[in-house]
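Is it possible to get an amino acid sequence alongside its tokenized fold?
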Amino acid sequence: MQQRTSNATARMSSSGSNRLLGDVLRHSAGNFLARRNFLARAGGGAGMLAYAALAQGESTSHSNHVPRAKRVIWLFMHGGPSHVDLFDPKPTLMKYAGQPLPASFGNVMTRRNVANNPLLAPIRRFRPRGKSGLEISDFLPHTANHADDICVVRSLHGDSVNHPQSVYQMNTGSILMGNPSVGSWVAYGLGSENQNMPAFVVLPDPGGGLKGGPPAWGSGYLPATYQGVTMRPGASPILDLKPQPGVSLAQQKHDLSLIHALNRRHLEQRDNDDQLTARVKAYEMAFRMQSEAPQLVDISGETAKTQAMYGIDEKETQEFGQRCLLARRMIERDVRFVQLYSGDTNGWDAHADVDKNHTEYCRRTDKPIAGLLQDLKQRGLLEDTLVIWGGEFGRMPMSEQGKGRDHNPWGYCAWLAGAGITGGRAYGATDDIGLRSVVDKVHVHDFHATLLHLLGIDHYDLTHFHNGLDKRLTGPDEANVVQGLLV
């Protein structure tokens, strides 16, 4: 870490901003600051160094590629959508439906002892879609119209059969709480392109109840300023953001200036505590957002045609359609990372009845997601925006309670679109019944490494010193960029 820091500092020493960084280095050395606080004062440590190098067209010590994505929209289907009913057709599963799992598939770890239950056939028919012939289920007729734009990853796998741990792993790379989310890492590494908006915004399901809760978009051990900022449609996109009635702009500026001065004095006496630093920045950001955020969520200026494209004119799709449209409006304003959640307490968790559950959630989300893809494409934004769809895991091929399916982290699907990703294809494969990934397996860490690569970041370089270790999103072990997804 020290060698990478010194190399990056040497490369950046020619610009004015780099002289400022040099001043911070000299000042921090003179005052013997703890390494954690030095990194915070340096503007994000390795993340700042990586960003500065990328901004100059240079690379960090492991990175030498041009970013294909400038921003990300992650559509997170909370609860675990069934891959074998949506994006992973299995004729063999239809053949053996109603029969026990063949012994040739070996032992299966399940949560609810469903291993000996009869196999359940795919609920809806799969059909070839678009010019490519990529097979997608009848559950998703609108998304199916964009088959030639999406690449389905059919070989994802993770490490936990439980919701909270799997939600954490898909969002933070670890099954344990307290680690930074992907959005936080991206904000830390690349910063914000809009100084009046956060780099990382989250649009949660209004029903609440995410398994694992807000730590899924938290900043973990990164400085708190990089956590996801939750927003919502309507007149109050961020709670308590509006000033009180009767408070003039001049008075508010005066109050903010006083608070800023007091906080800075308080901060200097406490060796630049991360949480306090984040609070100071939050005051400043909130003031700048008071005019930006309400304009951003005001969709009244969008044409009726555009709103209909997202399904905002229909009861079932109105809510999710509004959030998808907000995601497009945010990336237009250079928000770096936007994450939308579909699914409240149980969401896509179809233990009792896949048909009933997925009919409801596909109905809510299918048209808005297709509208988002169409809108991004016709505005030229899909070229450098990466769109991700997926949940924390898939579902078992065996039945549960007759018509449902249990959790399956051993083989499941997500899809990517935009950022130069070649669509109309599937990457990797599960076995003949969708139980386990068997061809071109993609662990969650590999998936994350690939996402960072598309953003121009080498995952080995994006680190933060914590508890004596250089920590990273992709964990301490080896992770690989999935080259087959980059074509």
